[in-house]
Amino acid sequence: MTVILVMFYVMIALTTLVRLSLMSIKIWLAIVALWGLVAMVITYCISGLTPAEISNLLNIRNVVIGEFIELLIFITWLFSSGGKSRILGIYPGVMICVPIAFLSASSYRVFPGMDFTVIAILTGVSVYVAMIGFIFLCRYFRLHKESLYEISLLNVLVCVSTFGLS
Amino acid sequence: MSRAGKIVVCVGAALAVICVAWAIYAYWFSPTRILIVNPLPAQEAEIVLNNDSRSIKVKCQSMETVTDFDHYDAVLMYGRGLYLDSLQLESLDKAARKGIPIFTNTLRNFSFVVTHNLDSLQIEMLQLYFSNPCRTNYRNMLRYVRHIATPQRIGDQDYSEPLAMPSNMYYHLEAGKYFDKADQLTAYLKKKGLYSPSGRNIAFVSGVNFPVENNRAHIDTLVSRLTEEGYNVYPLTATGKARAKMIKEVNPQAIIYLPMGRLGNDSLINWAYDKQIPLFMPYPLIQSREEWLDVNSPMGGGTLNARIVVPEIDGGMTPLCISTQDASPEGYLLYTPDPERMNAFIEQFDRFMKLRDTSASEKRIAIGYFKSPGKDALLASGMEVVPSLYNFLKRLEKEGYDVSGLPLTLEEFRQQLMAYGSVMGSYAPSAQEKFMDYTNPIWIDKSDYERWAKETLLPHKYAEVEERYGKAPGSLLARGDSLAIATIRYGNILLFPQPRPALGNDEFKLVHGAEVAPPHSYIAPYLYMQKEFDADVLIHFGTHGNLEFTPGKNAGLSQADWAEVLVGNRPHFYFYTTGNVGESIIAKRRSHAVIVTYLTPPYVESGLRQKYAVLIERLHQAIVDPTKNTSDLKQEIIGYGLHKDLDLDSVGTGIYSLDELKKIDAFVEELVNEKITGAYYTMGQPYSPKDMLTTVIAITADELAYSRAKEEYEKGRISKEELQDFTFISHHYLPEAKRDLTKLLTGQASCNTVNNEKALQVKALLTESAGAEIDAMVNALKGVPVRPAPGGDPVLNPNVLPMGRNMYSINAEATPGEKAWENGVALAEQTLTTYREKHGEYPKKVSYTFWAGEFISSQGATVAQALRMLGVEPIRDEQGRVMDLRLIPSEQLGRPRINVHVQVSGQLRDIAGSRLKMITDAVKLASTASDDIYPNYVAEGSLEQEKRMVEKGESPKRARELSTMRVFGPVNSGYSTGMLGYTESSGEWDNRNELAEGYFNNMCAMYGDEDNWGLMNRDALEAGVADTDIIIQPRQSNTWGPISLDHVYEFTGALSLAATVVSGKEPDAVMADYRNTYLPRLQDTKEAVAVETRATILNPEFIKERMKGGATTAQMFGEIFRNIFGWSATRPGVLNENIYDDLHDIYVEDMYDLGVKEYFERVNPAALQEMTATMLESARKGFWKPSDEQLATTAKIHSEITANHGAPCTEFVCGNKKLQDYIARHLNKESAERYNKDMAAAVSESSGARVLKEESRSLLSPTSENTASIYVVLSVIIFLAFLVIGLWLKKRKDKI
Fold first, then answer.
1. Do the interacting molecules here have an ipTM over 0.90?
2. Contact B1109, B975 (CB under 8 A)
């Protein structure tokens, strides 16, 4: 079950990062910085939660439904044009907060004894750097809308499987 | 000017006017803001409520919360205990620079005194106002401060000079009436019609010189109520010599003191006792009612010390909380008397005083005694109960008490007790039926019982009983609507056995909550004693019962606490062994008991010196002269089996090394000098001449030997190492000291020759003690107070003699004492040295057991050990109290900081909670130590603990908080680890791991800091015990050892087992032995067990001595057997592998021809049944691998006694069906049938083994494979659909 969850989180992150790579550099840099900040805050807040409480918050079924909706938005954007495309194009994807939260929760196991603020900063910076790195990688490989479509389809498969297995 | 300009001008003018008006107001008319820092709540209320000026605003703040000083016009501070941090001091300086007057009220030379912007005259005035607290002065002080801080402000600048309040004075209810002499108060009382010519005078000392006016509702209530009862009350406030003088002037028949420390010096206290003036010490609490009643908020620290601990030194009685401090509607804290507690105190006081008036023949005495269920003997630590009780009753008869019906012979009395005064276990319903049918118990009708319960218990407490045990009359000793209680009545004397405090599953249940109500069968006799029998006095007979260990507050009990409410408002006296001061303190504080100490059993010669004399000589020769170290010697040592006890090789050839010989020598010397006790003591019977001799020698020989050795050292004849070598002293000085003392005590020598007067003094005191115990109790029954005294083993502290006194504890705040610190340091370093020698490295974690008795006797030496391990040392104030801690620099420490884990008894938790918090502070300090040049195992341990807890599912933050928790104990307000009952209910568990489970469940309450005090956290405990390298058990008394006291295996054995289960490795186990006050030392537990085993249970001399005793002494054998079983279950490695074979040879085969079986059949057959049952259960469990013949003989004896005397109905046998079946399987057919029949006659057929299991929780729901498959298929279909749609859309786009 853990393996499937990790795979699912990876797919969420992948889909969102590919989506971000299709935006202009200024926009995605800003969004990535925001996510870095969010990662820091989440990491700090999560220090007071037990794994059971975190599991409750990141209820897998709710996450799957959320991700499914997000994928629908991405796919719809891919096939729309004009005003609709512009409106849907604004949406950068928010479900990446889930793998970030998972990463935050895991970071305490990796750095036991370290000050929580330091862990939060490290996590935030790591998320920021990793996201930037991956997006540059996407742009280097010239990933485009069709790539997003294919990844989204795959993610739909993963969503449904995860929902069934949870 | 334009319109806009006009508007600007108008607005500007308006603003200017407002500013000017504001400035005028601020300068001339605004109220003076006065900040008062660190007042006691009582003072705060008095000051604020006496401010009658609207121009003065007073704000009171504690020193912890105050932040800004410069927003006020004046700052007044109470100096007592004042401490400000750097930020606060900065703000204070800022205020001072602004010109704000700042004043600190001081009583003595406090280290913190800050005064600014005041001249000497002003300081003097303020000091006078503060020093003479009364309404008028508080009012004028505020006005005076307004005058000096804001003289320009208009209004309320008038004030009067301070009124001089007499510092030592008598007063009464009317404010402003103060008297210098008692006569003046008497005249005033007469004038007011408050004086009773026939009434008794009470000197009522209300503490330090406040509150004298206002905020003293509790004092006024006490004075009024006592006056209504016909007493002449003389309230006074005074200190020092003046207090003593004023008390004596009253010529009181009683003293009531609201304690804040001692009443006076020893001279005053001795005067009071010489005059037979009782001291009563109820107290007000500076806590809200909610805090007081909160079971999870124990009384501790300075409050416990000042209100209870220190007054115990004076022998104060009735430590009841009579008032709290609660918020008035305006928010100020006012003393609020608790009506029920006030009534309780008045009634207890009045009943005690009336003991002087009631004639002996009219007095009604209730005596509760203790007994195991079934046919086992009456119990009391070190006391032969039946003859002691008989002697006591005979003495009462002689004193004129109505004891009609008391049998003429002791034997008849014993038979009546066993027949009519038995305790029933819930596992023996047949025995219950027999009891109800044939022994004529007292029947209590349900309606009466419920009425009494309604009158006595709080509704919600009674509801707890019903919830747990159903409606009255319950299930035990119940028939129809009536409940039977076991009692024996002789005239006006009621004897009753204390029933079991829990029933059924609860008897060994893993208790996990504070609120465990006792059953109806437990409550009923106490209610009967109060309501129907209407006892004048309650006596508990011997150490100890369980009433004082029922759940509730640690001190300051209320009507919601069982111990308090079941004793009721009777004077309560408790015969208690002097050897157990720790638990006696709990009885004093939780059931307002007055302790009357009784002697320990006499110390006797073990007879082992003769046995080992030749070996000792050979050893000494071999140590000095290596040529004498031969293989013969080795074989002789092996022949004694000593190699097994010391883990030496058993190869018959070759020789032992010099170090090994020294080790053997030390062991044998300890063995031959081991102090053992003989037959249990009977009150009223002095020791025999022989026992007197051996006891006095036990008490005084060590001191004489060491003093002679010290003289030799000072003359340079022996070295320091030799002086500190127990073996050397034992060999060279102790035998001579014993010989000389024998001559002195038998009249063959004089004091001058032996130079030891002390021995004769001790002898005199011991002789006096035999009569003193009953004398003290008889006097107490006449209303004569019992003198206070320290408690403990007389060998360690002869000052506990004579007996018949009221034991007291120590000031926990001053621990570890200086001597205790030295001992602790020495032992801690010895621990590390010994461990390193054995293992080649430092231990990383040391686990300690803290007990109350040891804590008191050693003045906190084990606490000192723990601190030293951590590399932390105490900082004391001028009064010797340990106020803070200091990290010992790594360089100075010279070694790593060692991690610690502490398990505490409930008793220790109650009397020294502040020390447990101190240890946690020390752990935090050590964990964060930086710049250590050696490894810091404390920091590593905290990290490891944090990791483990995160893995167990704690949040990282919580895991971090708990990573420094090291102190664990039983559930808050509870005292039982549960391990004794659980281990000995051996039919209920099959695997040792189950016992470990029990330990983790029961002992996981944390006692590290206030936030987590008493919270249960099993994961934290598991993390705490993991990887323990060594366990240390304190030992501070010669009256018990690891096999004679069950608590040793209960704590050390259980902790060892728990650590082994968690970590997979068994830690070392040692005892911190403080019995030798000159040379405290560490001893391996296995060695300690070996010494005690050889000196006692396997020693024919010991057995012969004990066989002089009666039923209770015989019961002791059973207890030792059960304790050996307990060790087998928890840490079998401490026992010699042949222990059970040896026990079989001695007690079943009677190899020494001592007449063992005959003895037990005569005095206590149930004890031998228990012993044989224990051996058979050990075999069943696999702890003992007996031959078939051994099993058969043991089972045979067991069944024969059962056939001759009936089933014992003790828990070990009758509650264990598996054992009964096992026994039956090892008997011949006829005996087996007979045995089964006898057992069935006592227990229910349906009773079977019940295995306790924790409820299982399923964290994950199972996933149906079928459902998963469906979803996979569905996902594929959807994917394909999206693919198709996508391709179709693309194609369409291309077309376009």
1. no
2. no
List, in order, residues 6 or more apart from B1065 with CB less than 8 Å away: none
pLDDT at B501: 80
Interchain proximity A156–B956, CB inside 8 Å: no
Pairing of strands B201-205, B178-179: unpaired
Query: Is A161–B1282 a contact, with Cβ atoms under 8 angstroms apart?
Result: no
Tell me if residue A36 falls in helix, strand or coil. helix
The residue with tokens 């007292």 is B442
- Asked if B1114 and B1159 count as a contact pair (C-beta separation under 8 A), the reply is yes
Task: Quote the pLDDT of residue B1262.
Answer: 37
Question: Is the minimum CB–CB distance between A165 and chain B shorter than 8 Å?
Answer: yes
Q: Exposed, middle or buried, B1106 (CB in 10 Å: 0-12/13-18/19+)?
A: buried
Q: Would you call A113 and B1279 a contact, using CB atoms and an 8 Å cutoff?
A: no
Q: Are B1275 and A157 in contact (CB under 8 A)?
A: yes
Identify the band that residue B430 occupies on the pLDDT scale cut at 50, 70 and 90.
Answer: confident
Q: Where are the domains of chain A?
A: 2-165
B1247 band by pLDDT with thresholds 50, 70 and 90: very low
Cβ-based contacts of A156 with chain B (< 8 Å): 1275, 1278-1279, 1282
Contacts of B878 (CB under 8 A, 6+ apart): none
Measured CA to CA, the distance from residue B428 to residue B435 in angstroms comes to 11
Judge whether residue B330 has pLDDT over 80: no
Number of residues that this document lists for chain B: 1296
Which residues of chain A from 134 to 163 reach within 8 Å of chain B, CB to CB?
149, 153, 156-157, 159-161, 163
Q: Do A157 and B1279 touch (CB under 8 A)?
A: yes
Q: Which residue of A has its CA nearest to B941?
A: A113
Q: Can you name the residues that pair with B179 across neighbouring β-strands? A: B170
Q: Is B1258 an interface residue toward A (CB < 8 Å)? A: no
B532 neighbors B521 (Cβ within 8 angstroms):
no
Q: How far apart are CA B1125 and CA B452, in angstroms?
A: 43
Position A119 scores a pLDDT of 92
The backbone torsions φ and ψ at residue B842, rounded to the nearest 5 degrees and listed phi first, read -75, 150
Mean pLDDT of B1126-1146: 96
DSSP string, B459-505: HHHHHHHHHHH-STT-STTEETTEEEE--EEETTEEEEE---SS-GG
Classify domain B32-149 by CATH number.
3.40.50
DSSP string, B874-900: EEE-TTS-EEEEEEPPHHHH-SPBPEE
- CB-closest option in B953, B1272, B1289 to A51: B953
Q: Inform me whether the C-beta atom of residue B930 falls under 8 Å from chain A C-beta atoms.
A: no
Q: Tokens in use for B620?
A: 């000494």
Cβ-in-10-Å burial (0-12, 13-18, 19+) of B695 comes to: buried
Specify the fold of B169-354.
Rossmann fold (3.40.50)
Separation in Å, CA of A22 to nearest CA in chain B: 19
Whether the CA torsion B986, B989, B991, B996 is positive or negative: it is: negative
Instruction: Please write the tens of the pLDDT for every residue from B1031-1085.
Output: 999 998 898 999 999 999 999 999 999 999 999 999 999 999 988 888 888 999 9
The predicted pLDDT at position A90 comes to: 85
What does pTM read for this prediction? 0.83
- In the predicted structure, residue B51 carries a pLDDT above the cut 60: yes
Residue of B nearest to A159 (CA): B1275
Distance of CA B655 to the CA centre of its chain: 49
Omega of the bond leading into B843 within 30 degrees of 0 (cis): no
Closest-CA residue of A relative to B1290 is: A79
CA atoms of B672 and B735, how far apart (whole Å) = 11
For residue B90, the model assigns a pLDDT of: 87
pLDDT at residue B297, rounded to an integer: 80
